[in-house]
């Protein structure tokens, strides 16, 4: 029986570098926001009259989700610092930490999409300052744009708080593999 070969010419068996889940990069979120901003600007440029007016509370749900993620981030950070991670009662279960990372990554993308979308709308509204409807919609677009940025920042904060603590043996210089055990 033969083992399956790796999918790339340079990969060795057991090489998982391409499959690691890393922290969300701000650069990637910026690319998403710019692409969505351009797409929304094009959409609204040709169809502005078909859209209803924007209420200034239109982006408020982004702030609510961001606030929840910040609070959860502080709770997770406290539990990680106090080493309250495990399966015991009152501890943060590792599966829940993984779910929070997934929530943070999804929220960061949602924040980038929202910020980009509202930015595209706002650019169009600023270009059409002579229209009364465009002037009235600016406040809603600004609230949504800031809400998207706040949500992305809160999601990055939550993701940061969910990081695994560093290896404890690396912090303790006395117990390196080559050093003799400490005297009793």
TrEMBL record:
Keyword Membrane listed: yes
Keywords on record: Membrane, Transmembrane, Transmembrane helix
A Pfam family assignment: DUF3180
Taxonomic source organism: Gordonia neofelifaecis NRRL B-59395
Keyword Glycosyltransferase among UniProt keywords: no
Annotated TM spans: 29-48, 54-76, 97-126, 138-158
InterPro entries referenced in this protein's UniProt entry, alphabetically: DUF3180
Name recorded for this polypeptide: DUF3180 domain-containing protein
């Amino acid at each position: 029986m033969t083992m399956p070969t790796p999918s790339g010419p340079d990969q060795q068996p057991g090489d998982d570098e391409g499959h690691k889940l890393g922290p969300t990069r701000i650069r990637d979120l910026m690319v998403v926001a710019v692409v969505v901003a351009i797409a929304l600007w094009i959409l609204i440029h040709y169809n502005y009259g078909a859209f209803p007016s924007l209420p200034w509370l239109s982006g408020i749900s982004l702030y609510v989700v961001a606030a929840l993620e910040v609070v959860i981030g502080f709770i997770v950070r406290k539990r990680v610092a106090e080493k309250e991670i495990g399966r015991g009662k009152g501890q943060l279960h590792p599966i829940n930490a993984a779910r929070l990372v997934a929530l943070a990554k999804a929220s960061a993308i949602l924040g980038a999409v929202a910020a980009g979308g509202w930015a595209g709308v706002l650019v169009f509204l600023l270009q059409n300052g002579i229209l009364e409807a465009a002037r009235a919609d600016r406040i809603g677009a600004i609230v949504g744009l800031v809400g998207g940025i706040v949500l992305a920042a809160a999601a990055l904060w939550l993701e940061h708080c969910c990081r695994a603590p560093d290896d404890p043996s690396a912090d303790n210089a006395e117990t390196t593999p080559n050093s003799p055990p400490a005297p009793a």
